[in-house]
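Annual report, structural modelling task.

Input specification for the EPU complex:
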Amino acid sequence: MKIEENVPFSTITTFKVGGVARYLITLESLDDLPEAVAFAKRTSLPLVPIGGGSNILGPDGVLDAVLVRVQDDTRVFADETVTVGAGASWDRVVREAVEHGLWGIENLSAIPGTMGGAVVQNIGAYGAVLSDVIESVRVFDTHQGMVREVLKSQSAFGYRTSIYKSERDRFIILSATLKLSFAPKPNLGYADLKSLDASSPVNKIRDAVLHVRAQKFPDLSEFGTAGSFFLNPIVDADTARALQSRFPNMPVFDLPEGGIKIPLGWFFEHVLQLKGVRSGAVEAWRAQALVIAAHPGATSEEIKNFVAHVTDRAKKELQIDIVPEVRVL
Ligand code: EPU
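The model returned the following structure:
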């Protein structure tokens, strides 16, 4: 295993802002697990598993923690199943699945981060959600000090959540097994993909998603970002109806697990008029207001102030409580 000290958040997160993490452990093999946990114990610092750093915001100073990430990036395809090491780039998994002619994750193309991070936050986009194809997840349970195989049914997956997220920092994801399909399963209900032909091959759908995302998200070579900064609020039917009577043009989305998803990006654009609004080096992204982008030189404090301001406005002007999707360390 590799232990590094004072590792800049600019190098381990896609936001590319902030100070340093006191320690970063890279697990090169499963055999490193007990030693990594023992190291964290000796330092008396919390152990914080990370993936590709695409959903975290580090502080400007020193984060007194032992970050731990899994290096394993293996991808083992066997018929319609693929078992993926937690350290694999998620989009590489999607690209390879599509190359194999496998359906199920093409709508999740171009989401930054690793397999491990994808599981923790149960990534979703364009009507698809990772948990639909998860079969099981292999974890190291730091409470029990052992490797466990957790089935999908035991993973408490929901909208951008899972047991790996709610039981914060308890589990280090080691790998995940996905069940995909050679039989075409186009998922084109989402507005951004409606123009596609239902007989489109899987690689055409991936291409379309890549195109849509390239229009909506900041270019990571120029800006820092962690994608959507906030969760879309999930409300009950009465609350949704009350909002719709105030904002008749507001679109709503029914969630398969129940509840109604309120499109915060829509409110940010059409009601709070935040699209493209800048405060110093922080921007509510010009093409997607739910996304916060950091211009070069931005600090973590600036981003947090902007977030506090937006949260306040949502409360006052929309009477909606909003919470970050991004983990603020
Ligand atoms: N909208 C606007 N203006 C905006 C942004 C959105 O009017 O500036 C409207 C859209 O027209 C649409 C609705 O709001 O009617 C929803 O917008 P969109 O489809 O762009 O998705 P989102 O709810 O803003 C979610 C995910 C994204 C994911 C997209 C695509 C969350 C927190 N975010 O965003 O995931 O890529 O759907 O399906 O659920 C992420 O989690 O970091 C992320 C980027």
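The chain is about 25% helix and 25% strand.
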